[in-house]
Amino acid sequence: MKIGIPKEIQENETRVALIPQSVKKLTQKGIEVLVEGGAGIAALFSDKDYTDAGAKIIRDAKTIYSSSDLIVKIHKPEFSEVDLMKEGLALISFLQSSINLDTIKKLAQRKISAFSLDSIPRITRAQSMDVLSSMSTVSGYKAVLIASDSLPKFFPMLMTAAGTIPPAKIFVIGAGVAGLQAIATARRLGGVVEAFDTRRAVKEQIESLGARFVALDLGKEETEGEGGYAKQVSKELHERELELISRHVKKTDVVITTAQVPGKKAPILITEQMVKEMQPGSVIVDLAADQGGNCELTEPGKKIVVNNVTICGYLNLPGTMPNHASQMFSKNIESIIAHIVKENQINFDINDEINKGALITHQGAILQENIKHLMVGVH
Ligand code: NAD
Fold first, then answer.
1. Whole-structure pTM value
2. Ligand 1: centre distance to CA 176 (Å)
């Protein structure tokens, strides 16, 4: 059995899907691991580290794709990469299937068994495979560092001979994995933190990190849907939510937004008017920039300044911390490989709950009903 790790070809990607420590565990079991030369360099893992772990360094991606039984990578494969794949191989990567229908169709045509990292059900048994949580942890942490770097003020309260400096006020919108990590990091830096979310369950989690929960009367509305994820809120609740946020952003130094609803564009929670009313020098870090952004003015991929307010819409924050981000990613991949590889053979049990959620294409078919439905009309 051969596992291939190609170099990521997406611009500015610095992470690698499997690090030498994980490779060693696989090669010790008799699995052959092929790594494209230089795949780990940007994450500080040299080719020698991989050969020491028992891997073979391959100079071209073509050989990796045409001879591996399982390919592990971070980003969805480009068409040029799918063309190189041996028919019938297994692939583990992010696929975001509902917005990459052409790729899914091509993978099915090549009879690839494609396991999508963003579709793993968030059940206890799959926690060790949860790459989304690992990468959100990195993003939440880094968002606070970016905010503190852009803020022309201290985060902690300081009592010095030159006077007393009050602590920075941080407002976190969306307290999922990234939001909770942002709260914890901002607290460690000495900021005073408030946080808001439309899911009722988060109050206790926010308070346990030493932040104040900003409450909104949700009435009888059901705001939590399948898998513990947020549901899109009603128009009426959204309007009340905007009023509440508007009151809080006026008096804060930093706003970190992370609000997302699976399969939907990110909700707009900070309007242009709210930005105009913010204090000069304040900072917004919009972690939903990938999904269009929670702030109306966010420009994905950019840092802009509007009315003296800095708005950071950086993409791929995990790629700015490639060493630890790759380490976490790789550890999650180890668990997925242990789940699907039995006695050095790939074995997808399509009745298993994890595979049922994450296996998008298999043996020439698209397995997910929602993707098949969206596929109508894709030629
Ligand atoms: P996410 O990235 O989809 O969303 C981030 C946050 O934004 C969520 O907390 C969500 O409630 C919030 N949000 C959405 N719309 C909003 C709005 N209009 N206003 C304010 N906030 C809004 O979420 P995530 O971080 O991936 O986590 C989602 C859920 O999954 C959480 O309940 C989390 O605890 C749970 N989870 C479970 C497991 C597991 O059991 N294996 C692992 C990770 C996460």
1. 0.95
2. 4
